[in-house]
Amino acid sequence: MEKLLQRKKKLDGKLKKVKAWRKVSSVIFVAALAAVIICSVVAVVAVVPVGLTGKWIDSLVRKHQVTLEGERELVTSMEFGTPVALGDLENIEVMVDKLGDHLDSLLGDAEFAMSKGEAGVELVVEEISRRMEVLMRSIEDLGKQVAGCSRDIRKARTLVLALKTQ
């Protein structure tokens, strides 16, 4: 997030400079155009090239400004999407931890059954069967969470690529 914020500040600075240069270049070329028009008695032919040059430089600066604005928009969208993705990944981590706890519990039941012999096996088989249902539901929930997170990441990647190509 810090890198995104630094990148955003850097882009804001560049965008501010581009806007300022655009205004400065416009003022310079308006002044030059006015000077040429005033001196048009001597150089009538010079008016058109100076005016065209001003428009050409303005179009170059405008294109650069649009590019910087697009990049800034991209960084902003990444800035908002990153916490969502991190939250999804934390949820997945919690679910994986719970799944590990279920597996440890099942292994503990199996070890208990082995230590008690046949009588213990019958008692524990029912408990293991019940816990297996809980484990399977946990696995299904984890699969749904991972699929949702993956879908969100694909959407975000598509958005970033679309913004980047603009």
UniProtKB/TrEMBL annotation:
The keyword Cell membrane does not apply. Its main location: membrane. It is found in: Membrane. The chain crosses the membrane at residues 24-52. GO terms for cellular component: membrane. Keywords: Membrane, Transmembrane, Transmembrane helix. Belongs to the UPF0496 family. This is UPF0496 protein. It comes from Canna indica (Indian-shot).
